[in-house]
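User: Can you help me understand a structure? I only have the sequence.
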Amino acid sequence: MPSATNDSHPSHNETKSHKFAVLEYNDEEHAENLEDLQIGEHGYKYRILDGRVVPPFIGPKRYEMTRRFKTESTDICFVSWPRSGSTWLSYILVLLTGSDGDKDKLRDSFHWLESGWLYQRTEEEVQNAPRPRIFASHMPYDMALGGVPEQNPCKYIYIARNPKDTCVSCFHFDRQKSWSGYYSGEWDHWLEMFMNGQCHRGDWFDHVLSWWEHRHADNILFLTYEDLKRDPEAEVCKIAAFLGVEMTPDRLDGIKGKISFSAMKASGFTDLGEIKELSHGEHFRRGKSGSWKDQFTVAQSEAFDLLYKNKMGSSGLSF
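Assistant: Let's start by predicting it. Here is the structure, written out as tokens:
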């Protein structure tokens, strides 16, 4: 990891408007413990938990709570590396379970326990929340909500995306953002960090493989963004079957009409426009597969392909 210090990046609190006062990240309110925050090259802010790089709003006490949290058979936890289609998947789950109810925002329809920023619900509040409970997570298998997934009654759904598209999307999403320390590095530096497992969430290859290797467990469903993009009807039916949700043609048509990229980008329910740094539709960028070709050079693509072959070649997982 790049050289690090415990110096905090200057807070931008003085520039934020009252409208976004709660929803703009800042260390003092959301980082839990300031002493273990580290600053790498180009201001990249992070902390280390269980040997992995995580964003500053994942605090050690909150993380410990997620590991001992008792799940139930009606619980659903969707998991991914960030920028892999998790918002898309969350909306599908909310529609399948009817968890939107009278909620104003998608993020009010599920719980992200590991985060001390946008989802600051207490353990007691989550314990008393309506069932079924839907949980979000960006953790690898061995850091999962509730402890060991295969020993939990909870159903886990993991979604993975082509790592090149994921890498590009994360670069545009995290650059110059408060939660990344206003990281100012250029693309070449970001790609190097990603390939070396130094971005938030650690090594992408280890993260995805940790869930892929347990995909045959009865309570784990492994999906890819590309399959969902190619045949959303089949994938929605697969998710419904995994959850034991009855699917009728009319219901399927209704869900399909709501989960298109254009519909979600235009919806006030699914956007994160109330967050200051995402107020211009940044949460939904392109929604395409293969847009990495606009960012990678030929040499970078070849180097990445070689890394993928070395890390994933024997896994049987390809994009």
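Now, to help you interpret it: Residues 1-22 have pLDDT under 50 and may be disordered. Strands lie at 38-39, 45-49, 52-54, 76-80, 134-137, 155-160, 220-224. Let me know which part you'd like to focus on.
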